[in-house]
Design brief:
mainly alpha; globular
């Protein structure tokens, strides 16, 4: 039932400093996200959706899946999370591990390492780098499952029986912990203290990011004066740190120097921010978007609109929020910011030699910055 997830500094945008004529798109890279992912999987050697198949077919997880089946028919979010593992129309679940593999292939083996790294390359990628990609996906999966825990106090009768919700919470905790434990074991087996330190710190960043997301009440989320610098910091913690540090770790495993490691980190960081901005913008720029489409009050267009409008006006506009944001400066500023991070990600790739893998990493950026 469960399947592996395949898956900062804010620079103020001055008027005209990042105009839309400075486009990221090209006629050869305007393909759909699904096509980009499919091509990327061919380059790295196998579909990343099977990265953690060994773990996910283990007896322990099979037993968990049997218990999760008991939740079918309830409204516990763990069911929709598990369903997302099986089918994701935009292939967003494959992003992290796939990027780590592409980055590994784009960089190739280090030519300056002394002594040279020994090991058999498969499709231009070291086995340790593939293992790191699996670990990255397991960590991301574990946190997605943990996010399915519901607050029992806030439940109403429409959510289902209290017993079902409590059982679902137990399954979410156990399933997430199991995946995280497997990731930790795999991380130790890499036998690289620098990479262990990097990925461990990314787990800490994820915890901190989730804490920030859940620390405020719904009323505070609506009325708090949130600056875009705060948004960037929080999104990096909850969405960007794992990918950025995993890309850096993949370079460390291949014994690349600190400059290459930093560029890999910068690509992962800015690509993650661009990807999140793309997601935040969808309710406002998609062809099917309408005034009734749900959106987050913590999304980038909302926060940038709040900054542009001023605090008092923002409070008075809440009832007409979607229509106002859709036609205001928040959406255009978010588009600019998405493209800014896309360009920063592309700049980070310049230190890597031209190759199929590098071109695909570029195409991923094009895909998340195309509207």
């Amino acid at each position: 039932m469960l399947r592996s997830l395949r898956r900062m500094v804010y620079v103020p945008i001055l008027a005209g400093a990042f105009c839309r004529s400075q486009t990221l798109y090209s006629t050869t890279s305007a393909s759909s996200w699904t096509k980009v992912v499919s091509e990327a999987e061919k380059i790295v050697g196998y579909p990343t959706s099977f990265m953690s198949l060994r773990c996910l077919l283990s007896d322990e997880l099979s037993n968990i899946a049997l218990h999760v089946r008991k939740l079918v028919g309830t409204k516990h979010p763990l069911i929709s999370t598990a369903r997302g593992f099986i089918y994701d129309s935009r292939n967003n679940l494959q992003l992290r591990g796939l990027v780590v593999l592409l980055m590994s292939k784009a960089a190739g083996p280090s030519k300056t390492a002394d002594p040279p790294l020994e090991g058999d390359l498969v499709s231009g990628i070291y086995p340790s780098q593939r293992n790191l990609a699996e670990i990255t996906e397991l960590i991301h999966t574990a946190f997605l499952v943990h996010r399915g825990i519901v607050n029992i106090i806030e439940l109403t009768s429409s959510h289902g029986s209290l017993k079902d919700m409590q059982f679902g919470n137990k399954m979410a905790v156990l399933s997430g912990d199991f995946l995280l434990a497997n990731a930790s074991t795999g991380l130790a087996q890499l036998q690289n203290t620098k990479v262990v330190e990097l990925v461990s710190s990314a787990i800490g960043d994820l915890v901190q990011g989730v804490y920030y997301e859940n620390a405020r009440t719904d009323e505070e989320k609506v009325t708090d004066d949130i600056l875009m610098t705060n948004w960037v910091e929080r999104i990096f913690l909850s969405h960007g740190a794992l990918l950025a540090k995993s890309c850096q770790g993949a370079m460390q495993l291949a014994k690349h120097d600190t400059q290459v490691q930093e560029m890999a980190f910068q690509y992962g960081k800015h690509m993650s921010l661009a990807h999140k901005l793309n997601s935040d913008l969808q309710p406002f720029v998609a062809e099917t978007s309408c005034d009734t489409v749900p959106f987050s009050l913590n999304s980038a267009p909302v926060i940038l609109h709040q900054e542009a409008s001023g605090r008092d006006i923002w409070i008075n506009q809440l009832k007409q929020l979607h229509r106002i944001i859709k036609t205001g400066k928040g959406v255009s500023s978010s588009l600019d910011l998405c493209r800014y991070h896309g360009n920063r990600a592309l700049e980070a790739l310049r230190c890597f030699p031209a190759s199929e893998a590098r071109s695909t990493l570029e195409n991923i950026v094009y895909a998340v910055t195309k509207f």
